[in-house]
Amino acid sequence: MFNKNPSVSIVFPIFNEEETIKLLYQLVRDVCTKSNVDYEMIFVDDGSTDNSLNVVKDLKNQDKKVAFVSLSRNFGHQSALFAGMSYATGDAVITMDADLQHSPSLIPKMIDLWRNGYEVVYTMKKKYDLPFIMSLVIKLFYWFISKISDIRLSFGQSDFRLLDRKVLDAILEIPEYHKFLRGQIEWVGFRQYGLMYDVEKRHSGKSKISYRKRLSFALDGIFAFSSYPLHLLMSFSIGVAILSFLYICIELTGWMLKALNICPNLIIPHGWVTLIVSVFFLGSLQLMAIALVGGYIGRTYDQTKGRPVFIIKESSVQKKTQAGAR
Ligand code: UDP
Ligand code: MG
Prior knowledge:
The protein has helices at 21-34, 52-62, 77-87, 107-115, 132-148, 165-172, 181-188, 211-225, 228-259, 272-305, and strands at 7-14, 38-45, 66-71, 92-95, 120-125, 157-164, 192-197, 312-315. With 326 residues, the chain is α/β, with parallel strands linked by helices. An 8-stranded mixed β-sheet has the order 7-5-6-4-1-2-3-8, with helices on both faces.
């Protein structure tokens, strides 16, 4: 497939990972050397408050295959990934977390699959090291998003993946502000291969992504790839309207039967409970509808502001494309 020795850029988003960076660098360097590819490593410092940036700078001074990009503040995992991808110069890019949960030993397999013609090699976790309820919620999310959108995400996808340059360029051209990269990658198509892998234990420290950020990421996925919730809401409102109309008809018929003395003993309930239930039910439905519509409008608003996905404070490399930043 390739005339020359192909080159691969490996991108690591970093948020306070000072204790892991050096080991990560050594492990990745060793597997890349064995795989016989030209490579570069791009460390994206996503506004770390620890010594991560200095550790990366030291590595850069020792090894010219190392580059770094430092963002002006913490923009979040997806933006940091996107920033690193937009600086990649290789024929392919591999993105992987910097906490060693994504084992570097999978890199040669990914490169082999790419050499065999796959333009995307994505990975799926065999199992989650999370509480049962959380894994169930994630499972439900993958099932739900596949049902309500045109993308078919397999359960357990992570941001550990290889993208051929063609795919990378396509992704960099998508100007969406709220990034849901796994969805975009499924959406752009190309020849894709899914690898199952065991998630390793975090080398040190704790997860840097809070439950609130995970929820907002899941909502980004839903809002970006489906307007089904709006359709669902519309169908539901129509259903409630029809039921209300039927209920009014039944009440009126009862009153008429009683007034005309056809059923004089008919007991018409005063309807207090029905009334209260309807008011609360419809009230909550309206609030939900406003929140849902607000979700779409808020994201449209964010998009129209045209703010960059990330801002660079300093970097050791020149950017290849105009994607995402100032
Ligand atoms: N990360 C980042 N910015 C953030 C949060 C995380 O660059 O705001 C990096 C983090 O340093 C790690 C990767 O993204 O390299 C994945 O984060 P983490 O391990 O905390 O996520 P988890 O594995 O728990 O989903
Ligand atoms: Mg992790």
